[in-house]
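Morning!

As promised:
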Amino acid sequence: MLSVNVDLVDRSYPIFIGKGLLGSPDVIAPFLHSGRILIVTNDTVAPLYLKQAQELLGNCDAIVLEDGEQYKTLETVRKIYDKLLADKYDRDTTLVALGGGVIGDMTGFAAATYLRGVKFIQIPTTLLAQVDSSVGGKTGVNHPLGKNMIGAFYQPECVLADTEVLKTLPERELKAGLAEVIKYALINKPEFLTWLEQHQEQLMALDGETVSEAIRISCEQKAEIVAQDERESGIRALLNLGHTFGHAIETAAGYGNWLHGEAVAAGMVMAADLSMRMDWLSQEDALRIKNTLKKFGMPVAPPADIGEQQYRNIMLSDKKTRAGKIRFILLKGIGNAVLESDIDSELLARTLQAQEQLCQT
Amino acid sequence: MLSVNVDLVDRSYPIFIGKGLLGSPDVIAPFLHSGRILIVTNDTVAPLYLKQAQELLGNCDAIVLEDGEQYKTLETVRKIYDKLLADKYDRDTTLVALGGGVIGDMTGFAAATYLRGVKFIQIPTTLLAQVDSSVGGKTGVNHPLGKNMIGAFYQPECVLADTEVLKTLPERELKAGLAEVIKYALINKPEFLTWLEQHQEQLMALDGETVSEAIRISCEQKAEIVAQDERESGIRALLNLGHTFGHAIETAAGYGNWLHGEAVAAGMVMAADLSMRMDWLSQEDALRIKNTLKKFGMPVAPPADIGEQQYRNIMLSDKKTRAGKIRFILLKGIGNAVLESDIDSELLARTLQAQEQLCQT
């Protein structure tokens, strides 16, 4: 078993990574307190892992929500509140998120706001959730006018990332998760990109040790950045590489049609393209990014039907926008992400129009 | 102008108390940052003070909600989110709560959760909000199954308590606010009870200096307790004197029929009665509490139509309940509140049945 500590002074917590953690009561035992436990999961994950999780956690009750980003809403969180209140769960309750990022974000938000805060534990069942949403305490829901617009910063007691559960993950979701793994390499760990390129086959075949190591490095990268900037007032924004474009794609395409990781993959290619147009990134490096993502089976262009003005409108209402300026994370080379909001409108227009021609001047 | 500092390490903030603060831009100026401001108020307060507040805050926009505890819901907070998103308010936004406790609690919750947290300022316009809900960072909304079940701890940048606005407050609400003022005396400041008894006339006539002093002492009492226990893991629970019974009255009577302060007044008499039955409080002191509240024009008995079992059911789902035990704040003498969850069921039954006979064995 590998582990990563997310170091946040009085709210630090460990991430445990390894094969079969869902069947290892010893690992989670120190984090279970005297109160009741409620598992929050969805109708895709429940048939696969709910029974095992209930055995792990002492046969506690569960609420099974509908699966999908389109259900990541206040209305769904409301169902968690209703269940908790109807069954009289008190402040000593621990909520356990068993599922992907959507379940983790909603469970975390419910935990942050039920009775003004109860404990929570994450058991992420997608690669994306294991490397991204389980680290850093961002919780929340979408709003018709934008993703993750309502939420809170709230840290779990611990995270169990069992690599075994990835075997039932649809291939499309596995690839989407790898997009975020590649993101960490692009932000500040160029040697990790080389490692990923070299281990592509093992990763996509879900070789246990290789996957655990990729998760460990990803979590460590994110944990390091989050520890420096828990509430995203500075450096943490770099984790949004590919996300300004990516969120716009998700919003324009309608939640749930593009997987988050897929949108981030295409968004990173757009960020590489814009970086290249600003003479910050060589065309060679921009193409390397595009080709690596392509080799991992990810989309490397946005859908053709989003117009330039639609992008601009959506991005202007992104919560990263400040004082009317859209904030982009761009690359001054692979492994050197920077925040930039002063973008030449003409260069941006070309990126927004490039489609399949991204990174190819 | 008087002021009280709420000392919470990295989230400390001042409360300014005095006549005409709504017309004093100098006081609030240091707390206004570069971003946009949105005032949240209701349709009772808006015709009276919105224009003045907008002048104070540089002609910012406002959202006017329906007035009343029955609108303290997720659905109403949702209207604040909708407005913020439709008008593209970003993370540098400051929300200003202009109204009573309901507006303060909902605005604080919206600020805590919009884009995972924006700044907020409170301008409480009721006595209750000035002495209670503006201190301590409790924010949230009600749920059909209980009061304040959904919320967060979130601190304002500052609080402006303008005593001038109390002149338009209905007398019933003024009295309800005084119930909370009296509460602070009962918890840990017995000499304040004597002062309040001596200044009853000036207080009820809204003499500016007397009212300011009563607000200052109340805020100081609450601030001192909150500073020791921000997240209510211990001593802060004492502030709930009268609230376990009071919340049950509010819930049973239907939100909005009893004012919070009125329910707390009757709840404090019930707490005094139970304390007396446990031989912790003399009958003389119990009657002094009841009579003082009565002299200030407050209800000193719960409504006749709430049955014993109904009380017990509601109290069991109170968020202060732990491991199935209802937690009461009782008095071991005036000025000495204690937390007790081990209550003889028979004694509790007598308190729940006493009605008009409370404190009269």
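The domain at 171-357 of chain B is CATH 1.20.1090.10 (Dehydroquinate synthase-like, alpha domain).

Hope this helps with the figure draft.
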